[in-house]
Write a structure and sequence with these properties.
The complex is a heterodimer of chains A (113) and B (112).
Chain A: E1 4-7, E2 10-13, E3 19-25, E4 31-38, E5 42-51, E6 54-57, E7 64-66, E8 76-78, E9 87-94, E10 102-104, E11 108-112
Parallel strand pairs in A: 2-11
Antiparallel strand pairs in A: 1-3, 3-8, 4-5, 4-9, 5-6, 7-8, 9-10, 9-11
Chain B: E1 4-6, E2 10-14, E3 19-21, E4 23-25, E5 32-38, E6 45-50, E7 56-58, E8 64-68, E9 73-78, E10 87-94, E11 101-102, E12 106-111
Parallel strand pairs in B: 2-12
Antiparallel strand pairs in B: 1-4, 3-9, 5-6, 5-10, 7-8, 8-9, 10-11, 10-12
Classes of the chains: A mainly beta (113), B mainly beta (112).
């Protein structure tokens, strides 16, 4: 099992460009999350989903959009990239099987210049 | 809103020294508590977790943590650190299947 995979690993965007960060899981977990990690700030929740077709905003959703059409995929869309979106983005999943822990993907390092 | 506070942003230790990283949370009621570790250039991995039962939990790589409900604390400990423990450590809390709230992290540097 691959677990949680994210693509791309690295990306440089120009201001105003758009892109989609991909997240795919093969763990059959219902819950999926997108976080951004900035130095010294810990992880901030951007969006999350409790199942296909259901998404909700986290702590820092502005400038981002998500969709969840399948259990496996949870892409994060940046429409108009801004320098403030320079960060490392992590996708995570969580099972409904009672363990409550989250499993993280390897991350995408995004630079907006 | 719940919050998680990690006492130290940076800790520098020599190999074989003992480690204790502090974590306090603000949320009242039943919580689940986690410590995650992030090695340089890697993603977060679970070190240990507490849901209920024995407040002293043991995790991977010789780490343990103690949940003290009266102090809203969940401190991470290791009796003797190794150079390979150099990493960033995150405390996190949630209730049931609610979203995780992370602390800002503690960067541990172990010198050989």
């Amino acid at each position: 099992n691959a677990g949680v995979t994210q693509t791309p690993k690295f990306r440089i965007l120009k201001i105003g460009q758009s892109m989609t960060l991909q997240c795919t899981q093969d763990m059959n977990h219902n819950y999926m999350y997108w976080y951004r990690q900035d130095p010294g700030m810990g992880l901030k929740l951007i969006y999350y989903s409790v199942g296909a077709g259901i998404t909700d905003k986290g702590e820092v959703p502005n400038g981002y959009n998500v969709s969840r059409s399948t259990t496996e995929d949870f892409p994060l869309r940046l429409e108009l990239a801004a320098p403030s979106q320079t960060s490392v983005y992590f996708c995570a999943t969580q099972s409904l099987a009672g363990t409550y822990e989250q499993y993280f993907g390897p991350g995408t390092r995004l630079t907006v210049t | 809103a719940q919050s998680v506070s990690q006492h130290n942003h940076h800790v520098i230790l020599s190999e074989a020294a003992s480690l204790e990283l502090g974590c306090n949370y603000s949320y009242g009621g039943t919580v689940n508590l986690f410590w995650y570790v992030q090695y340089p250039g890697q993603h977060l991995q679970l070190l240990l977790k507490y849901f209920s039962g024995d407040p002293l939990v043991k995790g991977i790589k010789g780490f343990e943590a103690e949940f003290i409900k009266s102090k809203f604390s969940f401190n991470l400990r290791k009796p003797s650190v190794q150079w390979s423990d150099t990493a960033e450590y995150f405390c996190a809390v949630n209730r049931g299947y609610s979203t995780l709230t992370f602390g800002k992290g503690t960067m541990l540097l172990v010198s050989p």
